[in-house]
Amino acid sequence: QPQAKASGGGSVQAGGSLRLSCPVTGLRYSLMCVGWLRQLPGKKHEAIASLYFGNSSTFYHDSVKGRFTVSLDNAKTTMYLQMNSLKSEDSAKYYCAGDLGRPHPTYPAVGGCPFGEWGQGTQVTVVS
Fold first, then answer.
1. Nearest CA to 70 among 86, 51, 84?
2. How far apart are CA 22 and CA 12, in angstroms?
3. pLDDT digits (tens, 9 = 90+) for 44-63
4. Distance of alpha carbon 33 from alpha carbon 100, whole angstroms
5. Biggest CA pair distance of the chain
6. I need a surface site. Which of 2, 44, 64, 102 has the fewest CB within 10 A?
7. Contact assessment for residue 26 and residue 117, using Cβ atoms and an 8 Å cutoff
8. Neighbour count for residue 20 (Cβ, 10 Å)
9. CB-CB neighbours of 39 under 10 Å
10. 118 with 96: CB under 8 angstroms?
């Protein structure tokens, strides 16, 4: 298991905000991109945000577009997920993730970033 533990989760009221963080240096490869996965109760892992090292472009799943922002710090050692306008359907376990060097059709992906590696997640619960 890689040392890429997501932090910052917790309980928040609907409409509120949280910021998650993760040490991306804990991901073994991450040759193309990094980002975030989440797993809703009874659902598969879904890719919600990606950031490409090569061109700094970011991509988002439609369900979070305009509300969530993925970024790296200046040293490019810590990745963040700023989550605003949270909804009850955002309640999930969130994971820091990266690619394994090449696309794979079975990996969760957003914006073409195939997440084949992720660390320990953090729980986000949004209450009304």
1. 51
2. 19
3. 999 999 999 988 999 999 99
4. 9
5. 40
6. 44
7. no
8. 24
9. 16
10. yes
